[in-house]
Specification:
Order of helices and strands: EHEEEHEEHEEHHEHEHEHEH
Largest sheet: 6 strands, mixed
Distance between the termini: 26 Å
Shape: globular
CATH class: Alpha Beta
Helix content: 25-40%
CATH superfamily: P-loop containing nucleotide triphosphate hydrolases
Bound molecules: adenosine-5'-diphosphate, magnesium ion
CATH topology: Rossmann fold
Number of domains: 1
Strand content: 15-25%
Amino acid sequence: MAQPLAASGAAVSSSSPLFSSSSSRPIARRHAPPSYVSMRTRRRRQPAAAEAAAAAEPSGSPLLEVRGLTASVKETGQQILAGVDLTIREGEIHAIMGKNGSGKSTLTKVLVGHPHYEVTGGTILFKGEDLVDMEPEDRSLAGLFMSFQAPIEIPGVSNFDFLLMAVNARREKSGLPALGPLEFYSVVSPKVDALKMDPKFLDRNVNEGFSGGERKRNEILQLSVIGADLALLDEIDSGLDVDALEDVANAVNGLLTPQNSVLMITHYQRLLDLIKPSYVHIMVSRIAKYDLLPSDLTCLARCV
Ligand SMILES: Nc1ncnc2c1ncn2[C@@H]1O[C@H](COP(=O)(O)OP(=O)(O)O)[C@@H](O)[C@H]1O
Ligand SMILES: [Mg+2]
């Protein structure tokens, strides 16, 4: 089993593979640390020439711009996010790490408009458009995709029909004619093969009776079929064995273009070796009792 990134002392040193020169783009500090639950970004150490090159970056247009985002649980009013700043540009891969309960999943759910949460302050712009008042389905049609940490079942709806509906909704928005089932099969079939999934999964109801690993593969199948300008991947590595993780990572890497971006949440170095991030952020909670945490997490938190 892979070790959590933070479980090694090397995890926070400049010699860590996470921060090595094999990373496709520099890891640089992008935002001032906010107050309560904040994002801290790890800068990769590099030679002067590389520093100069990095200073010229970033080049892509901003895709997602989050400023001073605060959000609470709708039912109880409990504040979870209290000042998150994050900019993701076209073509960038961002990773968020941080201890359990620091608000990582909440951030992604707020971005896609999950009904359990209420934005109480700050702004979220996606391709320059204000996301906050947009319905979740409109966010999806705008090009935002989320792979959930715990994907839900949709009883009575086959995977095939679900994917076809999602693809046709996207096509309709772009003024393209709907695909028929036969035509769509030729689109979906190679993607099922690429993920080494049994084609029978297309006939099964969405996630019904799927194992944890099968659900994760299915989430990435949805992403590869539906497509996205920004994919939010919440712990896609959980429940996957080494081979499955490689298949999923290959599928994600195969979707990357200079225009689209990924935000992935993970605790593990292994995923970051397979999908190389441009930036790594640490979600930090002001109220975290670092002295009660294992020393590895203390180090990770203090060293950013
Ligand atoms: N719907 C909710 N109701 C109550 N508490 C919640 C809800 N969603 C998140 N929380 C709480 O907010 C904190 C952050 O949760 P989460 O975003 O899932 O953390 P992470 O993904 O970093 O582990 C946790 O303490 C969690 O219990
Ligand atoms: Mg989570």
